[in-house]
Structures are given as structure tokens and as C-alpha cells.
Write a structure and sequence with these properties.
The structure holds two protein chains of two kinds. Chain A is mainly β. Chain A is built from no helices and eleven strands. In chain A, the strands form two sheets. In chain A, strands 2, 4, 5, 9, 10 and 11 form a six-stranded mixed beta sheet that branches. Chain A starts with a strand and ends with a strand. Chain B contains no helices and eleven strands. The chains are: A mainly beta, B mainly beta. Chain A binds chain B through residues 1, 3-4, 6, 31, 33, 40-45, 48, 88, 90, 92, 95-96, 98, 100-103, and chain B through 4, 9, 40-45, 56, 59, 91, 93, 98-102, 104-108.
Chain lengths: 110, 114
């Protein structure tokens, strides 16, 4: 199935910098999810968003569910080396249709 | 362990062969999902089990792919007559209630078809 449009594809940042990535779709979703995947592992859920306009934080991570229900963004503040990995957005509609973005590969230079 | 486990972690096979990939979900989780993740892409849904039955198999790409969960716990993804394009990481996930927002992923099986 068609995946979501996630950008940027990759990011190279200095430790301590803030990071922003986003996801857009032509379809609306009820739920937006953000995952992190480390090499050789499965994705791990970071943040779940359930309502248009919702802004949710998890430590240094903040994510928002777009008002149009067709987009979401994830911010990471004050990045640290262990933030390295691939971040995926996922949109879910009525618990039936779940689509993932292609991922944002984050590299943090100490 | 308490998480989702998948075996083997790596599988190399030749084109045309048959392969089986196994998933052990978290104990007590009634819902089980299979995804395929190609290089540089996000996971793509294949099939969803609720208990022993396949509640949604709309993501299976063709009839070479089949999955079973005979006792409502362990699941096996079966691929017949493998093709080079089947090479990918196959991820399994489980959830307690069937809500996809609460699924836990296993580490995946990396399948390489030569």
C-alpha cells in the first residue's frame, strides 16, 4: 500500500541540537504514531496521538497531530548520541488501515 | 524473555525454495501481525490474526504467501517458491487487545533470497 510522505529522509546533527521531522498524507487518520527503530530491532513506540491538534510530549520528544488530520511532526530537543536511529511515523484509520512512512535516519555527532 | 521473539534471525535461501518464519508473541496477546520491511522503507502490513483466525489478510502480496496460527499463540509465515524480490525483513508484532496502536514488535527475520 501507499506509504506516508516522511521528511527529511536523513539528518546529520551535532549533539545538543534540536531535530524536527514530519509526515504528510493525502488521507486522513484517526491516530498518528511515532516509532524509533534501532539496527536489528523492531520499531518501538515513542508517542501516540489521538486527536486533531493534540500536542504530546515524552521527555525530550514532542509530537503534534495536525489539524487537518493529514499530517504530524516530531521534535527532539537537545539531542544526545543515543537518539541515533530511524524514526518512523505511522497513520492509523479505524484500527484497520495502518500506513508507515519511509523513515528519517538520524545521525548525532558527539 | 517477555517480548516478541522471531526465529530465525537470518535466513538465506535460493530462489524457488520454500521458507517458514516463526513468531512467538507476548504471552496472552490475542492479536498478532506480520509486516514486511524492505530496505529503506517502513513496515508494510501483511496479515493480522485475532486468536487463531486471520482477521485481515489483505496485505499478503500473492498466493505464495500464507500464514497460520493454529493454537492462537505461535504463528508461522510461509513463503513458497521464493523470489529475489521477497528479500526483506519480516517483522511480527502482537497486542493484548487487537489495537494496532499498542502493538509490540519483534526483532524481525532478515530473509535473503539469492
Amino acid at each position: 500500500g501507499q506509504q506516508l510522505n516522511q521528511s527529511p529522509q536523513s539528518m546529520f546533527i551535532q549533539e545538543g541540537e534540536d531535530v524536527s521531522m514530519n509526515c504528510t498524507s493525502s488521507s486522513i487518520f484517526n491516530t498518528w504514531l511515532w516509532y524509533k527503530q534501532d539496527p536489528g530491532e523492531g520499531p518501538v513506540l515513542l508517542i501516540a496521538l489521538y486527536k486533531a491538534g493534540e500536542l504530546t510530549s515524552n521527555g525530550r520528544l514532542t509530537a503534534q497531530f495536525g489539524i487537518t488530520r493529514k499530517d504530524s511532526f516530531l521534535n527532539i530537543s537537545a539531542s544526545i548520541p543515543s537518539d541515533v536511529g530511524i524514526y518512523f511515523c505511522a497513520g492509523l484509520y479505524n484500527n484497520n488501515d495502518m500506513r508507515f512512512g519511509a523513515g528519517t535516519r538520524l545521525t548525532v555527532k558527539p | 524473555g517477555a517480548g516478541v521473539s522471531q526465529t530465525p534471525s537470518n535466513k538465506v535461501t535460493e530462489k524457488g525454495k520454500y521458507v517458514e518464519l516463526r513468531c512467538d508473541p507476548i504471552s496472552g496477546h490475542t492479536a498478532l501481525y506480520w509486516y514486511r520491511q524492505s530496505l529503506g522503507q517502513g513496515p508494510e502490513f501483511l496479515i493480522y490474526f485475532q486468536g487463531t483466525g486471520a482477521a485481515d489478510d489483505s496485505g499478503l502480496p500473492n498466493d505464495r504467501f500464507f500464514a497460520v496460527r493454529p493454537e492462537g499463540s505461535v504463528s508461522t509465515l510461509k513463503i513458497q517458491r521464493t523470489e529475489r524480490g521477497d528479500s526483506a525483513v519480516y517483522l511480527c508484532a502482537s497486542s493484548l487487545t487487537g489495537s494496532r496502536d499498542t502493538q509490540y514488535f519483534g526483532p524481525g527475520t532478515r530473509l535473503t533470497v539469492l
